[in-house]
Amino acid sequence: MLRLINAVAWIAIIVTAQSTPQPYLRTPSSRQLAWHQLEYYAFVHFGPNTFTNEEWGRSQSTPDVFNPTALDTDQWAKSFADAGMAGMILTAKHHDGMALWDTNTTTYKIGDGKWAKDRIAAGLSADVVRMAAASALKYDINFGIYLSPWDIHRDPAMPKPNLTGTLYDEPQIFGDNTTGDYNDLYARQLTELVTLQYDNGSRISLFELWLDGASGSDTVQTFDWAKFRDIIRENQPGAVMWGHQGVDARWVGNEDGYTVPTNWHTISRTQDQTHYEGDKLQTGVRDGLYWTPAESDARIRDGWFWHANEKPKSVNALMQMYMECVGRSVNLLLDVPPDTTGQIPEEDLETLLQFREQRDAFLKRPLLTPDLDVSASSVREGDSKQYGPANVLDGRTETYWAMNDNETTGVLEIRLDGTYSIDAVIMQEQIALGQRVGGYLIDAGVDGAYRTIVNGTSLGYKRIWILNSSVEANSLRLQILQSNATPLISSVQALGVKQ
């Protein structure tokens, strides 16, 4: 009898497995899936450039130049949390090469400057990276690190007259034809950062590591990306690695906070291969070889580092940036640099808070609720509980509407509980099982008479469609026109007000 029961249970498992849609080609890893859901977080460019009014640190000033008058990493983290940002990524070392943490790899670190020595003498921490990580934990936001591969301080092609004969006159090992191994230095710095600990001895968890490929030098340095990846994977398995075109996330192809309407989460090249141009990075490659979604790095000001003569962008400009990034399935990494006090400027913070207020006022007007009547042209194996169209309204990321495997087009209709003025539509695909949809329409209906209000191509993690003008409707219809596998729709939402 026990064998019979086990056999029946095994058959049930097989049946269940057969009814579940199979993953389509490439799918996100668990860390990538969690990363998609972050959507919007801060970039923090802070270092010697903040005090020298530079962007790339060519002046090679001594560590004494780093002198914030009122450094407060708690203010950073609280500001970002209040602004609705999910985390921050700090420039632990930018192109200038000066380290913001207590490293054993170089004398060119803020710890060798007067500001740090005074802090330590007063019994305070001078490790800005660890301080920022602790503040992020305190305010419940994620923490990530930028570690520049290019290092002006070690590059023989970059003049350093301010450092000649000083403690910071270090061997010029950057470059394939120099004496020394820069890859070993970078690997040691990376290892230090991915193994940093809080004061209580627990390891600092990183959600993203930025491996920027930018360089302003003719020096050729072949990076040992494979070694760097192994160090990160071994010590921070949950961290997404950002690079020009991989490993886990790619550049969007510009630094202006926008992308084109069609966006595929896959590409067909790795970080080690010839780089795509900007257009291909924006659109991605449909059915590509690697799940490498795009991230848009943009700035609240004109520069990456704080400059006294710059002002933050307008709230409307940030709103447009958000809609053309997050609204097109691309994460937005918005740079908000501290000033020479070591704090986020008040005007920047006020802009971020006003941006959140405007964003929330727009997005928090959902019209579609779980109790509405929803129907579909087809439901997978007739299982409405598991795959029915009502799943698109239940607010759960793990549920979705699905049809049978041989059906790649279909219709879903939602009947509202009155007549509404609709000005935006939000849709999400169940990307945990791959990106499938390549063409769809959203129609607004009044008493059964429909007109198209959205004509879309790619769907992916999330699409926010802002209509050119509001439309009246007491029903909505989604038409899937093209999909490379049976479409899996996780969410449909409309924004607006009741008439």
UniProtKB/TrEMBL annotation:
Residues spanning the signal sequence: 1-17
Source organism superkingdom: Eukaryota
Keyword Nucleotide-binding: no
EC number(s) recorded for this UniProt protein: 3.2.1.51
Start and end residues of each F5/8 type C domain: 355-497
Pfam families per UniProt: Alpha_L_fucos, F5_F8_type_C
Classification via PANTHER family: ALPHA-L-FUCOSIDASE, ALPHA-L-FUCOSIDASE-RELATED
Similarity field: Belongs to the glycosyl hydrolase 29 family.
Protein name: alpha-L-fucosidase
